[in-house]
């Protein structure tokens, strides 16, 4: 998969995408990632990329001209153009799966108060937010999307890890896990896990997962009920 990123802060991308699974996916040729500085597409000698909103109000907007030229240049006819903005639809595992199905993504990150609306209307295929909190710009959200999408590319994960992921869908939190030693600073591992009784262990884990999900993420159980009733004839 090819992923191009258009950003005012290319320096933010050095580091997080050069480690671990993303690093390996890039080295293996599964991910061809290129970071582009929007400022390189500015027209004037001051490299202006933003301006004040018509009608007044706080902050600045990204001007249409550099964005149009950059996106037309980088997207060609092939790329899925995805804006990162607080007004986007919520990112999720399901959206990551959708994006992983495209051969070429162009992620366009905003800042300040956002994009001139004509960019949205004419160039964007999708617009994504990673959650309801305010960040300083869209660089970290773009990296979150790249991370979640890359690990879904065939061959990016070890076989055991991907198989594990399939059986454990994202509608339940994980059960508590322990490793050696069986007692640490007087803190004991639950007896059942040392019993060797695999049926009992499976039952205990399922119960713990459900208790934890009820406590922390009741919304996940509600979604599960809804998808169960959806699929019942
Ligand atoms: C006008 C009020 N603000 C919207 C909540 C303006 C604004 C604040 C921060 C516009 C852009 C930003 C920078 N954030 C992003 O570009 C961004 C983001 C985020 O802040 N939270 C979650 N997901 C995303 S994706 C892009």
Name the descriptors.
233 residues; alpha/beta; Alpha/beta knot; Trp Operon Repressor, Chain A; 2 domains; five-stranded parallel beta sheet; two-stranded antiparallel sheet; 8 helices; 38% helix; elongated; binds ligand 9D3
Q: Could you characterize the architecture of this molecule?
A:
- This protein has 233 residues and is an alpha/beta fold.
- It folds into 2 domains: 2-150, Alpha/beta knot, CATH 3.40.1280; 170-232, Orthogonal Bundle (Trp Operon Repressor, Chain A), CATH 1.10.1270.
- It has 8 helices and 9 strands.
- The longest helix has 19 residues, at 198-216.
- The model has no long low-confidence stretch (mean pLDDT 94).
- Bound molecules: ligand 9D3.
- Ligand 9D3 is lined by residues 84-86, 110-111, 113-114, 129-131, 133-138, 141.
Short synopsis of the structure:
With 233 residues, this protein is of the alpha/beta class. The chain has helices spanning 20-27, 64-75, 93-100, 117-123, 139-150, 159-167, 198-216, 218-231, and strands at residues 2-7, 32-37, 50-51, 61-62, 80-90, 104-109, 126-129, 183-184, 187-188.
